[in-house]
Amino acid sequence: MATVFLITGIMTILLGTVSSSWVILIVFLQPVVAVCFFPPGFAALSSIGPPSTRSVIVSLTVPAAFLIGGGAIPAGIGMMGDAGSLGLGIVLTGALIGTGFLFALFLKISRS
Question: Where is 95: in which H helix or E strand?
C-alpha cells in the first residue's frame, strides 16, 4: 500500500510539472496506479476495529473519502487554477498523496 501511495503521488506531481507532450501518458498511467490502492486499503480499513464494527467503519469512511477526493481536493485545485497556478494545485495534491506513503509505513495490519 505504501508503494501505491508513493507511485501515485509521484505520478500526480509529474502531471502538474511535465511538458504537454508527456501529459497524455501521465493522465493514462496515474489512475491505473491509483486504483491499486483499493484492495489493500479496504483490507487495512477492515482490520481497524472488531469484526462487529467493520461494516460501519467502511460505511462511514467511503462517503467521507468521496467528499474529500471528489469535492474538497478538486475544489482546491480549481481555486489554485483560478489564482493562476493550476500546476501548483496538482503538485500539492500529489505531495499530499505522497505523504500517505509515510503513514502507510507505520500501519500495523493484523493478519486474522
Answer: helix 86-105
CB atoms within 10 A of CB 92: 18
pLDDT in tens, 5-30: 999 999 999 999 998 899 999 999 99
Q: Write the pLDDT tens digit of every residue in 61-91.
A: 999 999 999 999 999 999 999 999 999 999 9
What is the domain partition of the chain in residue ranges?
2-105
HEC readout, 6-42 = HHHHHHHHHHHHCCHHHHHHHHHHHHHHHHHHHHHHH
- How far apart CA 26 and CA 9 sit, in angstroms, is 12
Q: How far apart are CA 13 and CA 22, in angstroms?
A: 13
**How do residues 24-54 score in pLDDT, each as one tens digit?**
999 999 999 999 999 988 888 888 888 898 8
